[in-house]
Design brief:
Two copies of one chain form a homodimer.
Chain A (H helix, E strand, L loop, with lengths): L2 H7 L14 H11 L11 E6 L2 H9 L6 H4 L2 E8 L15 H15 L3 H25 L3 E5 L4 H7 L6 E10 L14 H4 E3 L3
Antiparallel strand pairs in A: 1-2, 2-4, 3-4
Helix pairs in contact in A: 1-6, 2-6
């Protein structure tokens, strides 16, 4: 599917065929696409948790406002990130020429070390980019998606045994939609959203 | 361009043809695509600042580690968001059936009111999604991009007269690339990044 078509066709779909599952190959295509998303300094700090166990899905649904897509979608992906990924900078640049490594490896430490909010912002931003990649790739593969942040983040963290140095950004349901999304309910105008030069 | 192809072909490109500019129609296509990106509760809080004034671009370059793409790219987009967009919830659901409005409008207040970190996380996440939309749309339109967070955020905020209740998430340079991106320097394996069920 053409990229601009996929961007326009992607909508948050809430109802899914509970009998459908992605093939292993489709799942791999989707996650390989996600891993092509950019991260600052190539730190690749996202960690994508595929929730497949039906009992775990049910437990997550109970702390996610009882939303049906949590259990009914073909795949539930929890978008998490390792806040401490910047602490091992060498591995992200091991294949670069030495002069590039000499600049970038120390720059990573300087950018993140001791800056908790900067680390957190980076996790949210990178997961946003990777999440949109997943949603557009899924659309192009014939699937619908629903991005979700309506859930108890701490409870889901416990359920998936999230390490202390990781955080959850949001979740995405992926599957065969059975009902169209509702019409867009109140879209802002171009002039309000796009600003030239200064506010 | 096919969506999966665009996802694979998108790379952070640092060198641009400084003589090239997007047509007004191309610019509109790109920003219209960005506005199709999802936001939680449809709050559409992103505000995209197109920096066109060459003097302003030069000033931004000076607080952005002197990176050439800031002045040389066809377009520089500062991805900002209005942290207080949740305070006017009715407008995002004005076209929905009344029972939907009755549930969602108060839910918006409950989700964000008094929760500064939640508001900030939402800005970073939504700008991440919209930014990836821009980068993939640009690729499909024959352009390259470079996402950037290597700059002095406070200094750029002053330069674009960012309102106090808005925040910057990152910047994107868009244009005609003149040099290929370097080879990927140290990519993590699938097994490290993709987790099944629990850590």
């Amino acid at each position: 599917m053409d990229t601009l078509t996929a961007i326009k066709a992607r909508r948050a779909v809430k109802h899914y065929d509970p009998e459908h599952r992605l093939t292993e190959e489709e799942e791999r295509t989707l996650l390989d696409a996600a891993m092509q998303s950019p991260t600052a300094f190539n730190i690749q700090h996202w960690r994508f948790v595929l929730v497949k166990d039906p009992a775990l899905r049910q437990q997550i649904r109970e702390v996610a406002w009882d939303q049906a897509q949590v259990t009914d979608a073909s795949l539930l992906i929890i978008m998490t990130a390792n806040k401490d990924a910047w602490k091992t900078p060498e591995r992200y640049w091991a294949g670069a020429p030495q002069p590039v490594q000499d600049i970038l490896v120390p720059a990573i430490d300087g950018y993140y070390n001791g800056k908790d909010q900067v680390q957190r912002d980076e996790c949210m931003r990178s997961c946003g980019m990777a999440g949109q990649t997943i949603m557009l790739a899924a659309k192009a593969m014939g699937y619908d998606t629903c991005p979700m942040d309506g859930f108890d983040f701490d409870a889901v963290a416990k359920l998936i045994k999230l390490p202390d140095d990781h955080i959850i950004s949001f979740m995405i349901a992926v599957g065969k939609g059975t009902k169209e999304a509702w019409a867009k309910p109140g879209q802002l105008g171009y002039e309000e959203v796009v600003i030239e030069d200064t506010f």
